[in-house]
Design brief:
With 86 residues, the protein is mainly alpha-helical. The protein is built from two helices and no strands.
Length: 86
């Protein structure tokens, strides 16, 4: 397998951190659905996640399939490593 640059791991870790916060806020909001501050935080982290994902995919290829990520030409989804393999 090809050696990946440190930036690959750094961006992926940042994305995983934001994903963790989004999951935790989702769980909190399930029991506190009127907490406006938590909703604002949730929306901010979703926006941040989209930005990080866009940066990652522009540099290293798609993170997900099934219509969640655009593809460049040629089709790159088959190229490893996939994020869950690192």
């Amino acid at each position: 397998m090809t050696q990946l640059p440190q930036e690959y791991y750094d961006i992926l870790e940042e994305l995983q951190t934001v994903d963790f916060v989004i999951v935790e806020l989702t769980l909190y909001l399930d029991t506190h659905p009127t907490d406006q501050e938590a909703i604002s935080q949730f929306n901010m982290y979703v926006k941040t996640r989209k930005s990080i994902k866009k940066t990652f995919e522009k540099k290293f290829g798609p993170l997900t399939s099934f219509g969640s990520s655009y593809s460049e030409y040629p089709w790159k989804w088959k190229e490893a490593p996939w994020p869950w393999q690192v």
